[in-house]
Write a structure and sequence with these properties.
This protein has 7 helices and 2 strands. The protein is mainly alpha-helical and about 160 residues long. The chain has a domain of about 80 residues: Arc Repressor Mutant, subunit A. Helix 1 crosses helix 3. The longest helix has 24 residues. The radius of gyration is 19 Å and the shape is globular. The two termini are about 35 Å apart.
């Protein structure tokens, strides 16, 4: 089964907490740890990577913590996961570092490639703001209807 690592899961959850304080209030690592039930030491690793990638910045001293470098609506879940997990490659043959010698003759290569592209496209439509505003369910329903219509059109064009 496809599964994100804890690094990706916790990274999205940590940025959600930091986005809750945006733009005025820095959020401490201890707050994130307590609200999301993730160890401080693991969060330090994740937040350091997200800071180096430019998603957040840290503010030192009393009242310090982490704040977003961009608006929540400008940070997609896909961009967070790509930073923490690497490129979307649901099979090893799609991983740019591994590749596959059977690409030209593989019967399922296009299936896995298409699935990965759909996951990537979907996660690019969801932002931290989507999570904050609670409109995720509406956004998912809208995407599902749009994808269903596109699939029907594609099916019709293929078989007519």
């Amino acid at each position: 089964m496809l599964r994100l690592s804890t690094k990706g899961q916790y990274g999205v959850r940590a940025l959600y907490e930091i986005a809750n304080g945006y733009p005025e209030r820095p959020v401490t690592i201890r707050e994130i740890s307590e609200k999301q039930d993730v160890s401080v030491s693991y969060l330090e690793q994740i937040l350091n990577k997200l800071r180096k990638a430019g998603f957040i910045k840290s503010i030192k001293g009393p009242g310090g913590g982490y704040i977003l470098n961009k608006r929540p609506e400008d940070i997609s879940i896909a961009s967070i996961l790509k930073e923490l997990e690497g490129p979307f490659a649901i099979t090893s043959c799609l991983d740019p570092d591994e590749g596959c010698i059977r690409i030209d003759s593989c019967v399922v290569h296009l299936l896995w490639k298409s699935l990965g592209e759909q996951i990537d496209a979907f996660l690019n439509t969801i932002t931290l703001q989507s999570l904050l505003s609670g409109d995720l369910q509406q956004k998912i329903s809208k995407n599902n209807k749009k994808n269903y219509k596109a699939q029907l059109i594609s099916f019709d064009e293929t078989f007519n």
